[in-house]
What we know:
Blueprint: H1 14-33, E1 39-48, E2 54-65, E3 69-71, H2 73-83, H3 86-106, E4 113-117, H4 120-124, H5 128-139, E5 146-151, H6 152-157, H7 159-171, E6 176-182, H8 189-194, E7 199-202, H9 204-207, H10 214-229, E8 233-236, H11 242-250, E9 255-256, E10 265-266, H12 267-279
Parallel strand pairs: 2-4, 4-5, 5-6, 6-7, 7-8, 8-9
Antiparallel strand pairs: 1-2, 1-9, 1-10, 2-3
Helix pairs in contact: 3-5, 5-7
Amino acid sequence: VKQEGGNGYRFFTPEMNTLTAGRLEMESGLRRALEREEFVVYYQPKVDLENGVIIGAEALLRWKHPDRGLVSPGEFIPILEETGQIEQVGEWVLKTVCTQIRSWQDAAMPSLNVAVNLSGRQLQRNNLCTTIARILEETGLDPRFLELEVTESMLMHDPKYAVDMLMQIRAKGVVHIDVDDFGTGYSSLSYLKRFPIDALKLDKSFVDGLPHDEDDIAICQAVIALAHSLKLRVIAEGVESDDQLAFLRNNGCDVIQGYIVSRPLPADAFAQLVWERHQN
Ligand code: C2E
Ligand code: CA
Ligand code: CA
Ligand code: CA
């Protein structure tokens, strides 16, 4: 009936056809999105739990679709990954963020690190390090202010390669590298020690259950203890409630990020928030 060969021919039900049509439309929209300047970077604050100061942000990509409004990265990043476009778009994000940090510095904003999410495909390209170095050079940004987030599963896909690549990037002066979605994959602890990383990001799925779910409590406490024993910081993501915040503070978490502080914001709104909190 069907041949799943190199062409990937398949039979589709009507629903699948609509799905495919939507998908194709999305793909072609995405292909034009860069040149039409439809991508935007939002910034979500990261707060130091010790003093309540906004120490930086995570850069989160948005697609301003002409008809559909803001499209979530959960919907389009996987497509960019599959089509390979993520390399170009990822480079655009890096460049946009480095330029933004520079302009905040020029405006004498309090010092901030901004974290960029890397995709698996970007990490696998062996020119990633050159690309980052070139962008830092072009924007004149001190590499200490650029932070990178790589997921646990990206690292464990080929740990030896990842160690090598991250070492090269670090040698360019990018010293802040965080492991994203920590706890959702399977890290080998012996490798964790070898990665030149700076922080573990406690995944939202574990933070969600705080402060009541016993499994989530155990996992969060274990991740914090593990991180600190490896001299890494812990950043909790997806913090929404006062109870979660109190738990994380009492258990020694270093940094939080979540709706309790702010949703991801356009650059100007983020800058305004930083100024407001700086004055108080
Ligand atoms: P992530 O890296 O785990 O990012 C955290 C996600 O949690 C973001 O979703 C953020 O908006 C959301 N979030 C933060 N705090 C809260 C909270 O308190 N409650 C809830 N319900 N959600 C919260 P977002 O912006 O939709 O991004 C989804 C994913 O898309 C990211 O997950 C990341 O994997 C990917 N992504 C976003 N921007 C980029 C990018 O520039 N490059 C790459 N490769 N991936 C990106
Ligand atoms: Ca992230
Ligand atoms: Ca994350
Ligand atoms: Ca996550």
